[in-house]
Amino acid sequence: MLEPREGIPPVVADDASLAEVIAAFAAGTGPVAVDAERASGYRYGQRAYLVQLRREGAGTALIDPVACPDLSGLGEALAGTEWVLHAATQDLPCLREIGMMPSRLFDTELAGRLAGFPRVGLGAMVESVLGYVLEKGHSAVDWSTRPLPDPWLRYAALDVELLVDLRDALEKELDRQGKLEWARQEFDAIAAAPPAEPRKDPWRRTSGMHKVRRRRQLAVVRELWQTRDQVAQRRDVSPGKVLSDAAIVEAALSLPANVHALAALNGYGHRMGRRQLEQWQAAVDRAKAVPDSALPQPGQQVTGPPPPRAWADKDPVAAARLSAARAGVSALAEQLNMPQENLVSPDTVRRVCWEPPKEADAEAVAAALVGHGARPWQVEQVTPVLVKALTAQSPSA
């Protein structure tokens, strides 16, 4: 499919056009297909730069959320309507920012996982389920570009063109497999989930951090990361375009004494101006001046069980439980034809095995699973497997 059925709609970029779209979509029928395009890798943050919708009776709409930053009126017009998204958790944060949040949804990517499809990208799903090959190739472009070129808009419109058709076919397949109620529970959990909490110490996720061992070096990573983030936010560009993670780690390992030493490092080469170099060296110098008592500790404060590789030494019985639980979950996932992580979160399995309930019976294990956020269908499927693993004789007994 190379062209949307009704052609490429004009981009909605003013209040009058938006009001027409809101009225049309409020009067439409059935589920509404929704997608959003971000400028990841180009701009700071994850804001939406294009929102695409399609609904029976309303056709397709392409909305510019830069020109129309408040889409709460559209969100209200679609209240109670089922939204169809592909990989919903990727788009919901940026849609929430502009006033759009579904009360009901159907996630075609998650539906594909639960139904056992080996490839769950939108193009692969549309091809295997509906028999259409979508024109792809603009997913990684800079969607903050204005005006948006016609080939990009065509691609964006095609992303919602067949989404409701795909939803209908996947609903039938899930029903045939006896998994439709499971999928509905998953979709309800996504729709009801609160916004994610900001990550604690996000600088610790700098790529290459495993090389940084000393606390003073960690302070350099922290200072450079925070400086880069401020610059990226001010310039509205992706942090990686300001300074690479590799360059941050390089400076942390080298602890350069001055701008000249810094300029000799990878990532701070000839294309970087003197002012920029001075900015990064100032960050290094600030980190060097941090008192020992205020230096960051190596490793993050871990809540929950230790890494599984450490279990055999710390608690061999727990390690045996985890091994048995993993084997049981893996066999059940294969039997149900779905990925293990969709059957039950690996973190949940680890937590239950590390600190099992006092009575490892079905009721107590089910309660533990619920406490870790498992949905009713997961509790029903996984409880017998975990009871067996928790009550099995450990190898050391």
TrEMBL record:
GO terms for molecular function: 3'-5' exonuclease activity; nucleic acid binding; nucleotide binding. PROSITE patterns: HRDC (PS50967). It comes from the Bacteria. One of its GO terms (biological process) is nucleobase-containing compound metabolic process. Residues 214-294 form the HRDC domain. Pfam families: DNA_pol_A_exo1 (PF01612), DNA_pol_A_exoN (PF18305), HRDC (PF00570). InterPro entries: 3'-5'_exonuclease_dom (IPR002562), Exo_C (IPR041605), HRDC-like_sf (IPR010997), HRDC_dom (IPR002121), HRDC_dom_sf (IPR044876), RNase_D-like (IPR051086), RNaseH-like_sf (IPR012337), RNaseH_sf (IPR036397). This is Ribonuclease D. It comes from Streptomyces mangrovisoli. The lineage of its organism: Bacteria, Bacillati, Actinomycetota, Actinomycetes, Kitasatosporales.
